[in-house]
């Protein structure tokens, strides 16, 4: 046997071993997903809250998402403050229409073009922070869909002992063609289950931009939003800064929806690539280990390398495991997946995962950046 043949055989065996471990992981993920959120739901007296929403550009369905924030089942005063950089931003039309349609809702907007770093979202929020009226802040990305009890649940968690911030897991919502479905599926069948497993095994401590609730005093203590104005993974960095004060970042058992709008192959791969680079930057060792979340692709690769019947059997087992996970996600979160896209998505996601180790640039809001090891964004010209 030549050196190349021996090398291919070893790679095939490694892929088979990874597919076995990955199939076990899928079983653990199914159990973890079904058990997620069984803890006692925290309740507390409502307190005044300011919801901060960064806006940039046209977003389909934005009006409805903002209206859901205005119609929360919450007994205390709520200020909704939308932050923009440009008065001609089309998102502002949705905000003004909502203010006219719901005159009793306290919805405001702040336009300020100053940039404090390369993360425009953090710059928007930092510019608007002076307009905040209440001590409790809830920062929510503009592509997030929240249920009516979202604010009550999050603020209840925030008032628990030793909690400095509260975040929410999020599932993908596909609004469009097969690319948006694949994007949502990557979130629902890979990212979210892996985050839940990491929480269950205490191997991860996430903080998601889908929701970050904290007190204004604590935000000022950790350096304010300006501190994160150059970070790609600003949400994780905020959570890390909170933990450095000795306080916890609580994960609310309530999941919110993230609207996926990646309607072309380029948009899909740019988004998945940025997520992979982010994950690898936050936890390089964990990113390497996350190869096991791709058992179907590993089995297929082993088959291509000549593993034969073993690879075929493991591919079927892994695919059945992913289908079972899809059913668990449907049962726990009400998420439906287009099942015939599952194997396609697994192969695409594995391809993005492998190529993420090659490094390179990321595209965010139409701008291309290099990412330093500490998460700081640099223009490609530097």
Please give a structural write-up.
The structure is a single chain. With 382 residues, the chain is of the alpha/beta class. Helices cover 48% and strands 15% of the residues. The chain is built from 13 helices and 13 strands. The chain has helices at 3-35, 62-70, 91-101, 120-128, 150-158, 178-200, 216-221, 234-244, 265-282, 284-289, 295-304, 309-333, 342-356, and strands at 49-54, 78-84, 107-111, 136-139, 144-145, 163-167, 170-174, 212-215, 248-251, 256-260, 361-364, 367-371, 377-379. The strands form three sheets. A seven-stranded mixed sheet has the order 3-2-1-4-8-6-9, with helices on both faces. Strands 5-10-7 form a three-stranded mixed sheet. Strands 11-12-13 form a three-stranded antiparallel sheet. Helix 3 (91-101) links the parallel strand 2 (78-84) and strand 3 (107-111). Helix 1 packs antiparallel against helix 11 (295-304). The longest helix is centred in the N-terminal third of the chain and has 33 residues, at 3-35. The protein is globular. 45% of the residues are buried. The model has no long low-confidence stretch (mean pLDDT 91).
Structure summarized in a few sentences:
About 50% of the residues lie in helices and about 15% in strands. The chain is of the alpha/beta class and about 375 residues long.
Task: List strands and helices in order, with pairings.
Blueprint: H1 3-35, E1 49-54, H2 62-70, E2 78-84, H3 91-101, E3 107-111, H4 120-128, E4 136-139, E5 144-145, H5 150-158, E6 163-167, E7 170-174, H6 178-200, E8 212-215, H7 216-221, H8 234-244, E9 248-251, E10 256-260, H9 265-282, H10 284-289, H11 295-304, H12 309-333, H13 342-356, E11 361-364, E12 367-371, E13 377-379
Parallel strand pairs: 1-2, 1-4, 2-3, 6-9, 7-10
Antiparallel strand pairs: 4-8, 5-10, 6-8, 11-12, 12-13
Helix pairs in contact: 1-6, 1-11, 1-12, 2-3, 6-9, 6-13, 9-13, 11-12
